[in-house]
Specification:
Helix content: over 70%
CATH class: Mainly Alpha
CATH architecture: Up-down Bundle
Number of domains: 1
Shape: globular
Number of strands: 0
Strand content: under 5%
Structural class: mainly alpha
Order of helices and strands: HHHHHH
């Protein structure tokens, strides 16, 4: 029998699937596919971004937090961001996405490494409120960038670039915070 407490993990898994589909669609666009592929990539990315809120909210509300959900949620976030950044760069977004995108991905790998190294020593680096907000800004910025690609909208692309740089700054700052916390605890 189906247990509704499985829904949060299913939402997280759907975010991973959406991320993979976003990358595939943007790669197809880069390979000469129709502009409409970016519209589908935007829709799937936005859908996946919405699940980032609901999976955690439902898990808390239904007391359905699980080890799998705790592990998969940040992985799903990273897959979604990675898929969108690489997909946009493949589709020709250029340095305005590649540079802040690299900074974001650099920090994600760096903090994941800190968490892994800390786990063996009993050091925990819990997610901060600022880190939750940086994820939200990342998801909004990348959604706008995907939408701008489909619409070929310069003003929307500019807004997406500005938000992406804000997300990169927030991402780097939270990386510094995690590095300081790791240094104090290690």
């Amino acid at each position: 029998m189906f247990d509704r407490r499985q829904i949060p993990n299913l939402l997280t898994l759907s975010r991973i699937a959406c991320g993979m589909a976003v990358f595939a669609l943007m790669a197809a666009l880069a390979g000469g596919g129709a502009r409409g592929l970016a519209d589908w990539a935007f829709a799937l990315f936005a859908l996946g971004a919405v699940t980032d809120f609901f999976d955690g909210w439902l898990a808390r509300r239904w007391q359905a937090a699980s080890a799998w959900g705790t592990a998969l949620d940040p992985i799903a976030d990273k897959i979604a961001v990675l898929a969108a950044v690489l997909g946009l760069v493949l589709a020709g977004a250029g340095a305005e996405v590649a540079i802040p995108g690299f900074l974001i991905l650099f920090r994600e790998v760096f903090v994941s490494g800190l968490r892994e190294a800390g786990a063996g020593r009993g050091v925990k680096l819990p997610v901060t409120w600022l880190a939750k907000w940086k994820t939200t800004v990342q998801l909004v910025a990348l959604s706008l960038a995907l939408l701008a690609t489909g619409l070929e909208s310069g003003p929307l692309a500019l807004a997406a670039t500005l938000l992406l740089w804000l997300a990169a700054a927030m991402t780097l700052w939270t990386g510094v915070q995690y590095a300081r916390a790791f240094n104090r605890a290690a």
